Amino acid sequence: MKPTKIYQTLEYRNNNKEIEEHGPYFCTLRDERGRIKTGAKTPWLGEGYYFWDTRVEDARWWGETIYSNKGYVVCGTSYDAHTPLLYDLLGDLKAFDDFVEMARMVKEFNNCASVSFALVLKYLKEHTDFNYKAIRILAVPSSFKSTNISFPKRGIYLAQIGKVQICFFKKNLFKGSFKVTEEHPRNGNLTI
Description:
Elements: E1 3-11, H1 16-22, E2 49-53, H2 56-66, E3 71-80, E4 86-88, H3 93-110, H4 117-127, E5 134-138, E6 146-150, E7 157-159, E8 164-168, E9 179-185
Parallel strand pairs: 4-5
Antiparallel strand pairs: 1-2, 1-3, 2-8, 3-9, 5-8, 6-7
Helix pairs in contact: 3-4
């Protein structure tokens, strides 16, 4: 077992008690009636509970990026990073290779040049023995960042691991209570 801290970023609404009683919060495109929510974006890892792995600064970055006008809170809990129920595309190279192969097959089947991550994951869930309860990924921008830690061969560097995200499909992998760890309100949403 490897207990690992994870962080969820939420819009600041001055409701910490409610957040801790009802969180973590599920990300979905549709409301209770099956209609697409106003302003909602497709959850890129599918529906689930989205967290930043280990680094609270990634949760802060998301808050500043998405909730810059309204403010945000950072909430924390933990999970077992060694659970066999984690589909780990960062730490399990076979899972990564299998995912890339599935993407190739989906592209070929649909006769298209590219395919979304969510579509490949949907195919895995619907057409294989996908029994995982969470997925862990490292998404990178098209520009590569190195650590400037070099290897003996000229031009080869240790890769910089950026923001690692986990999407839990159910709540059963969380190992601790869900607590608001930081508040970052904006002046416009404070009441006297």
